[in-house]
Every structure is written in structure tokens, then in C-alpha cells.
Design goal:
Number of strands: 4
Largest sheet: 2 strands, antiparallel
Strand order of the largest sheet: 1-2
Number of helices: 25
Number of domains: 4
Mean pLDDT: 90
Distance between the termini: 19 Å
Helix content: 40-55%
Order of helices and strands: HHHHHHHHHHHHHEEEEHHHHHHHHHHHH
Low-confidence stretches: 14-25, 451-464
Length: 511
């Protein structure tokens, strides 16, 4: 559905009430500066526009492509250190507090403790992601973490994955977000979170009975999604026979149990008793008899396929340029992917210097997803985030909970998915609340007991004194980029709602 620009202003005026007028906006910033910030980051914080104007667009691009060169603020580092579960791997997360012998059922108290632990683990994973997205200057890294997690989606609502999604992001996504696609593909393929989510841990050669003598057969789920979503794409030229062959190749791939020894710190385990060691023909390639190495060879074939190069290039172009990316751009990115052995940084560098990326018709043309909108609104105000719950709550309301996409294809990043009147109403309510200083983003509970009571709803979160967002500073932060129509609407309204109108404007809904 199409929502015309004046809809936002009219709805927000109705929600907040309108009155008299205000001063005109300052001189607009170079649109290229705003474009590069809005696409390589989740939107400007105070001072970002002025800094990019000072150092130049090219230096900003190269800095963001090398996040290790950008120091993190000590305040963010200190916040992340307080999240005790963040650096634990899948094995450590699973074995926490486990005292039962194999086959022994947990007691009600043990189940309660396990649920409490899982809730803490997931809550801290959400906090870490939102703190980094709102506060880290390594913005392209955060953008690509969001992009790749969505590409290799795992839903926290599925059983053990509520324990593992944070570790999955930390260990299988973040280290490879700007590296080589083959490394990223391999890391996700080996991680217990993916093995569990797409059922490959149940995948066994169909001629091998289990302990009870049952023959469970192959599980094709991961093999199919690995080709359709993660690599080749739905039109990538594979057949049902390729799906079966890949399932056989990946039989025996899973994760370790307490009784199983593995050198892999992430918890991956290859069980030779479940593997089909025979020769296979996969995508026209003969893969000779072998064990785990057969899977590695299949991943090599997938990562180096021209179909994969095109599928990944299309998705990157759609994310950074337009909902319907130009074919010429997709072709150029595909060529760059193949020429650099799937070097993600090089593909992005090509994109950020392309004619299509800098075509003015693509400026501010991408409608923000709920995640992008929430993070950009918080960043624009410059607030120091201590409490991420208001952000998480908005994402729940807008149908985009973090780590909560149930389907393996991840959340869409196109306007038709997110642009509707109900969603706009919720965004505008959020805009009004944050503009008026009514969201307790800078307030945190003083002790663990209070944190628990707030999470369970037994205790309301005490708000800090309301400090409204200064409209002049907000306009300056956003580079004076509002249209004349929006400026006139703001000018004819009460100064008390100017900041809310800015954060609820059609210009701010786009990037």
C-alpha cells in the first residue's frame, strides 16, 4: 500500500495537536554526505554530518570498510563487559548449570533455573546488538552484521536456539561480515544454531538405523535452504537430485553432546556413524568418497558458483541502493565477487563507487525497516543508551523482533513489507515519546533483582526526568534535509512538537 508523504505530518499533528510557528531551517547539507551516512550507517548521531563534511566522503567510506581502524568508545566497551553471557560459546551455554546424568529428567526447580538462564542469555544478546547498533562508530560493520544475520537467519523461538542465537552472531557472523563469503558460509554451516534451526543435526544416511533400530532417513531441510536462500538462489539452477545429494553430503554434521569430544570450540561435531561416505554428483561435480571433507568441498562449489555471486550481489544492491536494483549494478557486483573470490569488502567498495549508488534518484529512496527506523531515531537524538528495552518493545510491536523471524528467509527490507497505516501510527507514537524525552533509554535498574522484576512486569521502570529533544539540534544532526512541505508543516505548529514532527516526517522514514 502507498502512503503519501503528507500522511505522516497530518497524522502526527492529529496525535499531538497543532498551533503557531517557528524559525526557518538552516542551509541544507550536501545530499551526497547525507546519502553516504544513511546507507553506510543506521543514520547520523550529532556531529557525524559535520565530521564527514570535514574528512570527505571517500575517507569515510574507507574508514567504514576497515572497522578495526575505528576505536570503540570506552563507555560501550564497559557496557558490553557487564553482559556475562556474551562471550560464551554454544557448548558453555548449553552446559551451564547442568548436573543431570544422561537420561535423567530435570526437576521442576532445575527446569525453572534453565528457563531463567535462557531468558538471561537471549536478553543479553538483544542488549548487545542494540547497544552496538546505536552507539558504535563502526557503523558499516553493524549494518553488515544485521544484513548477514538476516541472510543466514536463525529464529530464537526454536528450542535450543534461544540459548545460541547470540553466540551464533558473535562467532559465525561478526568476524566474517566484511571478509570472504566462503568463510562466512562455512562458519554458519558449522554452528550448532544453524544445525539445530534447519534440522541438519537430525540428518543421517538413510541406511543407518538408530539405537532402537529405526531408520530415520535423510533430512533435506538445511540442504534445500542452503542452496535456495544462502547461496544459489531459488533460480540458481539446482534440481531435487542436487538437494538429495547435498543432504547426503551433509549427513552426520551436527553438534556435540556432553559425551562427545570435539576440538571445535563452537560445538560442531561430525558423526561418522551417520554419514554417507559414498561418491556423490552435486551440481555436475563428482565428490569422491569421504567424510566431513565432502561437506567442505560442497561449500567450496556453492561459494564459487556464478549463481551465488549473482544472488548475493542482488541482495546487497537491494539493501544499499533500491528495492529493484539496476541490472547493470548487479552485473558489476557479480563480476567483482567472482574476481575477488567472494571478498565482501571489495564488493561493497565497488558498490559505494558505482554510478548507480550515486544516482540522485536513489537518494533517500529506501523505506526504513522497523529496525532501521528505531535505531536511526535513537542515534539522531544523541541519547546515551543504557536501557534497550524501549527499542526492543517497538520492534516487537512492529513485527520485527530481534532474532525473532520464524522463517529461514529472514525479514524483508523492501517498502511493501513495512509501509502501512498501523505501522506508521506506532512509529509516530515512538517518535513523539522519544522527542518528548518520555522513553527511559538512559535509565537502568540499580540491581539484579530490580532488573528481573522489570523484565517479568512485576515492577515498572522508573523514568528519568523528561528532557525533550532540541529541534534545532536535531535538524542540524540530520543535515537540514527536510522538504519544504515538511518544513512548512513544522513552522506552522507548536515548538513543543517540532522534534516529534521531524522524527515522524516522511524524510526521516526513508534513508
Amino acid at each position: 500500500m502507498t502512503v503519501k508523504p503528507k500522511f505522516w505530518v497530518l497524522l502526527l499533528l492529529i496525535l499531538l495537536g497543532s498551533i503557531p510557528r517557528s524559525d526557518a531551517a538552516s542551509t541544507p547539507v550536501d545530499p551526497k554526505v547525507l546519502h553516504i551516512i544513511n546507507r553506510l550507517s543506521f543514520g547520523p548521531r550529532p556531529g557525524d554530518v559535520q565530521r564527514v563534511e570535514s574528512i570527505g566522503v571517500e575517507r569515510y567510506i574507507q574508514e567504514q570498510l576497515s572497522p578495526e581502524s575505528i576505536p570503540e568508545p570506552q563507555s560501550l566497551t564497559n557496557q558490553l563487559k557487564q553482559l556475562n553471557t556474551l562471550d560464551l560459546n554454544a557448548v558453555e551455554l548449553s552446559e551451564h548449570g547442568t548436573t543431570n546424568l544422561p537420561g535423567q529428567k530435570p526437576t521442576p526447580l532445575e527446569r525453572k533455573a534453565a528457563n531463567k538462564w535462557a531468558k538471561q542469555v537471549l536478553d543479553e544478546a538483544v542488549q548487545a546488538r542494540l547497544l552496538k547498533a546505536t552507539s558504535s562508530p563502526q557503523q558499516l560493520q553493524e549494518v553488515m552484521v544485521d544484513f548477514w544475520y538476516n541472510h543466514f537467519n536463525v529464529d530464537a523461538a526454536k528450542g535450543r536456539d534461544r540459548l545460541w542465537v547470540g553466540a551464533y552472531e558473535q562467532q559465525a557472523i561478526r568476524p566474517y561480515a566484511l571478509g570472504r563469503f566462503r568463510d562466512l558460509l562455512g562458519a554458519t554451516a558449522h554452528h550448532p544454531a544453524m544445525q539445530y534451526y534447519l534440522d541438519n543435526f537430525q540428518n543421517r544416511a538413510d541406511n543407518h538405523p538408530d539405537a532402537q533400530g529405526n531408520i530415520r532417513g535423510l533430512n533435506e531441510n538445511y540442504a534445500r535452504e542452503l542452496m535456495e536462500l544462502h547461496t544459489l538462489g531459488v533460480d540458481g539452477g539446482y534440481t531435487q537430485q542436487d538437494v538429495i545429494a547435498l543432504a547426503r553430503i551433509l549427513s552426520g554434521w551436527g553438534f556435540s553432546r556432553p559425551s562427545q569430544q570435539t576440538d571445535n570450540t563452537f560445538g560442531f561435531y561430525f558423526n561418522p556413524k551417520r554419514h554417507d561416505f559414498s561418491d556423490k554428483v552435486f551440481l555436475g561435480h563428482t565428490i569422491k568418497s569421504g567424510g566431513e571433507s565432502q561437506g567442505e568441498e560442497a561449500l567450496d562449489i556453492l561459494a564459487h558458483s556464478p549463481a551465488t555471486a549473482r544472488h548475493i550481489s542482488y541482495q546487497i544492491a537491494q539493501y544499499f541502493v533500491s528495492d529493484l536494483p539496476p541490472t547493470t549494478l548487479v552485473n558489476n557486483l557479480t563480476h567483482r565477487y567472482l574476481a575477488t573470490d567472494g571478498n565482501i569488502r571489495e564488493v561493497l567498495n565497488t558498490l559505494f563507487h558505482s554510478r548507480e549508488f550515486w544516482d540522485a534518484k536513489n537518494f533517500n529512496a529506501k523505506f526504513k525497516t522497523p529496525y532501521q527506523y528505531a535505531i536511526s531515531a535513537v542515534r539522531a537524538t544523541g541519547v546515551e543508551v543504557e536501557n534497550t528495552r524501549p527499542i526492543s518493545n517497538l520492534l516487537q510491536q512492529l513485527g520485527m523482533p530481534l532474532y525473532g523471524c520464524q522463517t529461514p528467509d529472514g525479514y524483508k527490507n523492501t517498502a511493501d513489507m513495512w509501509l502501512n497505516p498501523d505501522a506508521m501510527n506506532r512509529r509516530l507514537s515512538f517518535a513523539a515519546a522519544i522527542a518528548n524525552g518520555n522513553l527511559p533509554l538512559s535509565t537502568i535498574p540499580t540491581n539484579i533483582e530490580q532488573r528481573e522484576q522489570i523484565v517479568t512486569g512485576q515492577r515498572p521502570l522508573q523514568k528519568s526526568p523528561s528532557i525533550p529533544v532540541d529541534a534545532w539540534q536535531l535538524t542540524n544532526t540530520l543535515g537540514n534535509s527536510l522538504s519544504m512541505k515538511t518544513q512548512n508543516a513544522i513552522a506552522s505548529s507548536s515548538p513543543q512538537i517540532h522534534s516529534a514532527l521531524i522524527l515522524g516526517s516522511p524524510e526521516f522514514m526513508h534513508r
